[in-house]
Each structure stands twice: as structure tokens, then as C-alpha cells.
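Late entry, written up from scratch paper. The run itself happened at the end of the previous shift, but nothing got recorded in the book at the time, so transcribing now.
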Amino acid sequence: MNTADFNNRSFRGTVNYDDGDLTRDVLFRYHQRDRVVWGEFEGGRVERGNLVGRMREDGTLDLLWQYVNTDGKLVGGICVSRPEELDDGRYRVKESWSVTMGGDGMGSSEIEEVRE
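Output as recorded:
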């Protein structure tokens, strides 16, 4: 995928969203203007979160994210997200992330667009 349009798209976790703060109950809402992408997310153990980043020429996203969980803990990190378009026009996004604040760890996960 060379270009992607994330504006006004919503996503839920499908792979590696089974435990911890970020579960399948978290709803991500994305926005985009040119190559700048931002969003907000909440649900499950996430009280409120946001992300901001930029899109590379190949459509890959470089993101910074942060959230406050239901225990009041602030957690943040970085993520490289690679979108792919599904047959029905929705996006699936493969994520490689690292926690840089409020914990440690790194991993991979996937989110998939939901139509509200």
C-alpha cells in the first residue's frame, strides 16, 4: 500500500489484544491531514489515550502514543504501523511497538477497521 487515508476511520484490536490495558474493548479513532495522522482511544482499562505521527511515502506510520489507565497510571511508547487494504476496503494495520514510559516491553499486534 503506497498511500492510505486514515481520516475518520475507527479500529479495534484483533491480534495480541487479549490482556493488559489494551484489549479488544478499546476503540481507536484516527484522523489525517496530508502526512500527519493523529487519534484518540479509550475503552477497557484505558481511560483516555491519544497518538500522533507521520506517514512515510510507502504508507507506513511512525507514531507516538500515550494513555492513562483506570488505575491512573500514565503509559507511553512508540509504534511503527503498516496498513494493508482488505478486499472490502477496510484497513488492517500491523503494529510493532515499544513501551518507553510507565513500563517496559515490546511486541507486535494488529488492529482492524470497524464500521460504526
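The mean pLDDT is 95.
(Scratch paper discarded after transcription.)
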